Amino acid sequence: MVAIAALVLTASKSVASERVMYASLGETARAPIGWVEFCSENPTECPNGTSQARDVVMSQTAWKDLVRVNRYVNETIKPITDAEHWGVIEKWSLPTDGYGDCEDYVLLKRKLLIDAGWPREALLITVVRDKKGDGHAVLTVKSDKGEFVLDNQNEDIVAWTETGYRFVKRQSQSDPNTWVALGDARPAIATASAPRR
């Protein structure tokens, strides 16, 4: 609880100083094959078409929702590799049997938040290189107080700049089937006079 209060306080100070950091977006990138196959098997989870990019207003209620969903999924789903689970190297799926790897955790967190009324445009599946250099997936939540990461390797929700990960690519806010590169390690800073990226 202290960590949540500290993060909300930090986020509030950030807004007060009008410096909120967002990942710098690059060119269009190739969607992960796991996403493409998941969408062909679950078309209702991958709506076609574009929409207006929207950020979440990070209120205390919204923060509590994120913490609840992150904790629930991390505690409920048991980790297993796709090779052990499905006999293939890569398969993205909703973990309906209680087992999954990082992408499956992300898909379930995203679904639970969308089902609770969160805008899809603010919930972005993101591919990173973790601290060991391995490929990993996290859920980036884009908000008015910056971008926060829900991760099965970390019980705490942290700002993207605090993960220690190298961000590779993620879904576009305007179209979940379009992915954008995140090759620039320097964050974009939004100010009151500049539009957010």
Task: Give me the strand/helix succession.
Answer: HEEHHEHEHEEEEEEE
CATH architecture type:
Roll
Q: Report the average pLDDT across residues.
A: 86
Amount of beta strand: 15-25%
Main sheet characteristics: 7 strands, antiparallel
Number of strands: 11
Q: Please bin the fraction of helical residues.
A: 25-40%
Shape: globular
Cα(first) to Cα(last) distance is: 31 Å
Order of strands across the widest beta sheet? 2-10-9-5-6-7-8
CATH topology: C8orf32 fold
The computed structural class is: alpha+beta
C-alpha Rg (nearest Å) = 16 Å
CATH top level is Alpha Beta
Regions with little confidence, pLDDT below 50 for 5+ residues: 1-6, 8-18, 189-197
Q: What count of helical segments does DSSP give? A: 5
Instruction: Give the tally of structural domains.
Output: 1
Helices and strands in order, then pairings?
Blueprint: H1 2-16, E1 20-22, E2 28-29, H2 33-41, H3 60-76, E3 78-79, H4 82-86, E4 99-100, H5 102-115, E5 123-129, E6 135-143, E7 146-151, E8 154-159, E9 166-171, E10 179-181, E11 188-190
Parallel strand pairs: 3-4
Antiparallel strand pairs: 1-11, 2-10, 5-6, 5-9, 6-7, 7-8, 9-10
Plain-language structure description:
With 197 residues, the protein is of the alpha+beta class. It has one domain: C8orf32 fold (Roll). It is built from five helices and eleven strands, in the order αββααβαβαβββββββ. It has helices spanning 2-16, 33-41, 60-76, 82-86, 102-115; strands spanning 20-22, 28-29, 78-79, 99-100, 123-129, 135-143, 146-151, 154-159, 166-171, 179-181, 188-190. The strands form three sheets. The protein has a seven-stranded antiparallel β-sheet, covered by helices on one side. The longest helix has 17 residues, at 60-76. It starts with a helix and ends in a 7-residue tail after the last strand. Residues 1-6, 8-18 and 189-197 have low confidence and may be disordered. It holds the Pfam family Peptidase_C93. This is Putative transglutaminase-like cysteine proteinase. It comes from Rhodopseudomonas faecalis.
